[in-house]
What does this fold into?
Amino acid sequence: MRLIVATRNRDKLKEIKTLLKDLPLKVISLNNFSSAPEVRENGRTLESNAIKKAVQISKFLKTLAVADDSGLEIEALGNKPGVYSARFSGKGATYKSNNEKVLRLLQDIPLSKRKACFRCVIAVADKGKLIGAAEGKIKGRITQRPLGNTGFGYDPIFIPNGYKKTFAQLGINRKNKISHRSKALVKAKKVIEEYVLTF
Ligand code: IMP
It folds into this structure.
């Protein structure tokens, strides 16, 4: 049985494929299906976007699919950017411009008030039917400047609680042990395993 990862984001895909590697399924990227539709992420929650992507892609490809929607919530910004994390700095946003915007908005905020939380929802669907959804989160704080060069997105400006280094300094193996995405995927894997057992 094959499992499609319903994302075209190569950075997320790399993490998801690593975290799913022990499943007894052939994990395939959406990038192998150029005819698959672009799913508009216009939901107001991570959960609704993840479910929409998993359901639509699994329906189109008539198979099992997982989708991720994730974002960074910053307490001092009223939990923004949240579901709008990818496009926080507007049209043509890049990881760098998004990080710059966060640091600019927080420039007068002291370290003790730079609390943040990464959230990830993973949805699982088969041939258009939702099987389940799981959430993972990790709390931390925002740095005063970007540090480190591994990972992606907001990794260079996020230090998880209990650590002194950003996700981008910790490196992908250590990030994958504690991240919001790995926590959501541990739960999603159970959903997939139980579902596959019913065949
Ligand atoms: P979306 O889930 O495709 O809407 O995009 C989520 C956005 O949140 C990404 O483009 C990143 O900017 C950010 N993001 C999500 N997960 C992570 C992560 O693990 N590290 C850093 N940034 C992340």
About this structure: Residues 2-196 form a domain with the Maf protein fold (CATH 3.90.950.10). Helices lie at 10-19, 46-61, 95-105, 167-170, 172-178, 180-197. The chain has one domain: 2-196. The beta strands are 2-5, 26-29, 64-74, 80-81, 115-126, 129-142, 158-160.
